[in-house]
Amino acid sequence: MYGNDFAPPAAGERTAAVVAEESASFRDVLDSGGRIEPRDEMPEGYRRTLIRQMAQHAHSEIIGMQPEGNWISRAPSLRRKAILMAKVQDEAGHGLYLYAAAETLGVDRADLLDQLHDGRQKYSSIFNYPTLTWADVGAIGWLVDGAAIVNQVPLCRCSYGPYARAMVRVCKEESFHQRQGFDILHTLAQGTPAQKAMAQDAVDRYWWPSLMMFGPADSGADSGGHTAQSMAWGIKRFSNDELRQKFIDMTVPQADALGLTLPDPALTWNEERGHFDHTPVDFTELFEVIAGRGPCNEQRMAHRVGAHRDGAWVRDAAEAYAAKHAPRATAGEGAA
Ligand SMILES: [Fe+2]
Ligand SMILES: [Fe+2]
Q1: Could you tell me the distance, in angstroms and rounded to a whole number, from the CA of residue 278 to the centre of ligand 1?
Q2: What does the pLDDT read at residue 20?
Q3: How many A from CA of 173 to the centre of ligand 2?
Q4: Which overall architecture, per CATH, does domain 16-312 show?
Q5: Taking the domains of the chain in order of start, what are their residue ranges?
Q6: Which end of the chain is more exposed for a tag (fewer CB within 10 A), N or C?
């Protein structure tokens, strides 16, 4: 998903209590590396965990349209506008696949949206940051979509079939997003000193929030046993810290290629570990943003709720159309 920076699950979704619910056939499928499909037997905790994760993922996709949509009319050329529009449209598509995949677990997307709108469900905190300059669109593509890919590639092998299959296409599109972000920053970094400074400023502001997208360390009091349970169920394959390290290792050489600096003086290659060392992430800010006190939380939700309200006539028209055709089918059956 976009990140693992969400509230921990409800108590009933945790380890011991739910392991007892597992049937032998469910465990067999998991142990043999198979896929659980919608009609298969599954523990209630597994179903609830997936609904929560897929809904939060879907919400992140559609809320994530806002910070970049903000720049469509101001992108510096027709080519950049067309690319950005395609990207924002992709995110709407990702939301669509994921809401549809969540519905295979017996929920209604209208209910999931209600839960987003009244705050019962969350979206990734990264989208509560503003896009102040055009370079921010580059930094989001390069770092935020880059971090999303690191999170999402393992989900292509997730144990729940509809989620895993949706992720295959999503990941292909996310790779394009990451590449376009890199391309924007590359152009700016090679431009005038002012353009390069703008690119550097965007990277300085987005680096730490991107690392926070992976969530707090898994072993802390905040993890609530969530990662361990999700791993046992084959939903999650790597811990938050492993994913974060993978992202850092992948990104440092790319920053060198861009000629930009990542704002952490401790970033050095550690031969022994085979990874880059870095300053530990300070999660104080993340918890503030999750608690609703990020720079754009209110604006994002107000915009989302407004868009939902403005789109009511489309949903009403679709329902009226469905209702108009339903009696005809029933009448036909009655006459036969
Ligand atoms: Fe996406
Ligand atoms: Fe994306």
Answers
A1: 27
A2: 62
A3: 7
A4: Up-down Bundle (1.20)
A5: 16-312
A6: C
